[in-house]
Amino acid sequence: MQTPDFVQLSLFILALVIFTPILGRFMAKVFDGQRTLLHPILGPVESAIYRISGVDRSEDMSWKRYAVSLMWFNILGIAVVFLFLRLQGFLPLNSSSLPGVGWHSALNTAVSFVTNTNWQGYAGETTMSYLSQMLALSVQNFLSAAVGMAVAIAFARGISRASSEGIGNFWTDVIRATTYILLPLSLLFAVVLIGEGVIQSFSPYVQVTTIEGGSQTLPMGPAASQVAIKQLGTNGGGFFNANSAHPFENPTPLSNFLEILAIFLIPAALTFTFGSIVRSRKHGWIIFGSMLMMFLAVLTVSLVAEFSSNPTLAQSTVMEGKEVRFGTFGSTLFAMVTTAASCGAVNALHSSLSPLTGAMTLLNMMVGEVIFGGVGAGLYGMLLFVIMTVFLAGLMVGRTPEYLGKRIEAREMTLVILAILAPSAMILIGTGISVVSPVALSSLANTGPHGFSEVLYAFTSASANNGSAFAGLNANTTYYNLMLSIAMFVGRFAVIIPALGIAGSLARKKYTPPSPGTFKVDTVLFGVLLIGIILIVGGLTFFPALVLGPVVEHLLMLQGRSF
Amino acid sequence: MKSIFISLRLLLVMTVLTGIVYPIAVTLIGQAIFPRESSGSLIEQNGKVIGSSLIGQKFAQDKYFWSRPSANDYNPLPSGGSNLAPTSKKLSDSVRELSAKYTGGVTVPPDMLFSSASGLDPHISPESAIFQIDRILKARGWDETRRDSIAALVRKYTAPRQMGFLGEKRVNVLALNMALDGLG
């Protein structure tokens, strides 16, 4: 690492610290229905959406009604995407005459984009028409992010309200998240990206005769509009197969820096929004700080690993799967941010990263995508761990634990455990079944411990709703498309529904004023304990799997072994 | 039932707003402010498109600077890389073969030994450009006196770290080769 890399890292963290309160305060106002600077322009849009879709904005939903609305919205969303992809051959804006997408790939893609995973078994430029990219995929880039934010906000409301049945209105939360937050930010970001060279064109693919007389077909399409939201909404589904490594998606070091920042922007700011809603900004900052500390720890390990030499290849710098314009630092930072947040866009091939860097990408996802995490999903995932920490601290001193004035009891803890265990079970069971199934193993591109890591990575990425891949694995098969669809669905909704259940349960409780025995959650001590709990849970669950994959590969690499 | 109808109507409204209005707005603004960039930064020569300044091309002739190895041979349909593991035998064999291909026993810059993530990397490092000058001089039948002018060209086409601290120093291979042809 050189001085400019440290400058880049410092500016990145500084930008996060500066934008978090600005955007966080704005989001708190938006979800509370207060007027903001954008209301003169977007207020009428919001009202029109309510009118057309028949939403009663004054309705206050119970957690069950909130969850039912959310599930219908998402299941129908999956159906709509599926139909668009199946029928794209008959639909317009298909200048390359691409046929309908195969059923299991279409199903996988539909579940993937609706669950904010954006795992891609297909290559965009040879599979998706411009219409599919816009109407099916871009739309769910927005909506899946909005749903994540809605759940996080509903969770916060559940904590802040007392003796209340309602936790807010799902429709207004989704509509406000999209209209006031995601759309304006994306519009601005997309135009900046175009300035750096990201394409936004409806022209057909361009035929080129190269200087040496060869031919090359340059794909076109409305990429910038989708790239902007795929970063800001921690979606991560690339317009092109190479995702943010593609020069048309991420052309310059500046676009790279901004794309990295865009991933963390909203998840980081939501910690402040949360602090505002529960009236303890300091607690919000402690959560932010805990996330940042964990991020810096995994980043440090991966940078050391990535800047070390590889004895197997007898090279001090490995540029496989990296672009020259980003270099080792720009690639490693992106890899850590995209897996810490559940984005999953990539600007380098994770499969070719050093084994320990690969282990860190896995760890980021395995701890439940709570190191900033997905838009909304990172916050509600983190709050599950926060409640667990409060509970364990309560056990240690033998008191009924309280969290921000609410007693944490058996019901909440049952739901917390369910939400934490469900994705973990999907990862381990899915990987376990696959490594003994010939049909699953025939998809491997690499052998040895790395082959195991490929499968582990696929199920981790899907269950954690990340979407990045050790992409040597050919996942566009019936087996993986279906298995990973299940993993993505469970990984998303088996966390969301318990989270809403906890919110509903907390909202109903009476407010208990803090007593001298209450464990304070706005202290550094709490942050340290929180990090410890996350590492213990993640570590105990996944340590054996990580040892079998990346750790063994690392040790064998040091001996110069190859497979 | 009410949730189903609201869901369908909201999906429709949002499809129009985020799937049609938004990308079209971005297109109109983008094409107005950045017409060249939004259309792919295409390079024309004598009225014909010969490439994009963002997309790498394959150069196989000795008289040109070569691009990095590419898993898809610079065919953008689809883009992508090798995905080979850091302990892959195939990768270590390929590194050994490429090292042997570049003669002279000098240390080959790493970007010339490894393929990129997109398979379309338009850049090489300045070291990788300098290290190819010998071959180009020979292939073009130019004498040593022109070495300095090529080296000057490489320096001219070396982009610094953006804003002084972002990314890496790099040379756009297509632009450099076009300038090289211009030397006559």
In terms of topology, how is this protein built?
The complex is a heterodimer of chains A (563) and B (184).
Chain A: H1 3-31, H2 39-53, H3 63-86, H4 103-114, H5 124-127, H6 130-160, H7 170-196, E1 206-209, E2 215-218, H8 223-232, H9 253-277, H10 281-306, H11 327-340, H12 355-366, H13 377-397, E3 402-403, E4 406-407, H14 410-434, H15 438-441, H16 449-463, H17 478-508, H18 524-558
Helix pairs in contact in A: 1-9, 2-7, 3-4, 3-6, 3-17, 4-17, 6-7, 6-8, 6-9, 6-13, 6-17, 7-8, 8-9, 9-10, 9-11, 10-11, 10-12, 10-18, 11-12, 12-16, 12-18, 13-14, 13-18, 14-16, 14-17, 16-17, 16-18
Chain B: H1 2-33, H2 35-38, E1 42-45, E2 48-52, H3 89-101, E3 123-124, H4 126-130, H5 133-140, H6 147-156, E4 158-159, E5 170-172, H7 173-182
Antiparallel strand pairs in B: 1-2, 3-5, 4-5
Structure description:
- The complex is a heterodimer of chains A (563) and B (184).
- In chain A, 64% of the residues lie in helices and 2% in strands.
- Chain A is mainly α and 563 residues long.
- Chain A has a domain at 18-207 and 215-279.
- In chain A, the strands form two sheets. Chain A has a two-stranded antiparallel sheet with strand order 1-2.
- In chain A, strand 3 and strand 4 (406-407) form a beta hairpin.
- In chain A, helix 6 (130-160) packs across helix 7.
- The longest helix of chain A is centred in the last third of the chain and has 35 residues, at 524-558.
- Chain B is mainly α and 184 residues long.
- Chain B folds into two domains: 2-37; 53-182, no CATH class.
- In chain B, 45% of the residues lie in helices and 9% in strands.
- In chain B, the strands form two sheets. Chain B has a three-stranded antiparallel beta sheet. In chain B, strands 1-2 form a two-stranded antiparallel sheet.
- The mean pLDDT of chain B is 94.
- Chains A and B meet through helix 1, helix 2, helix 3, helix 5 and helix 6 of A and helix 1, strand 2, helix 3, strand 3 and helix 7 of B.
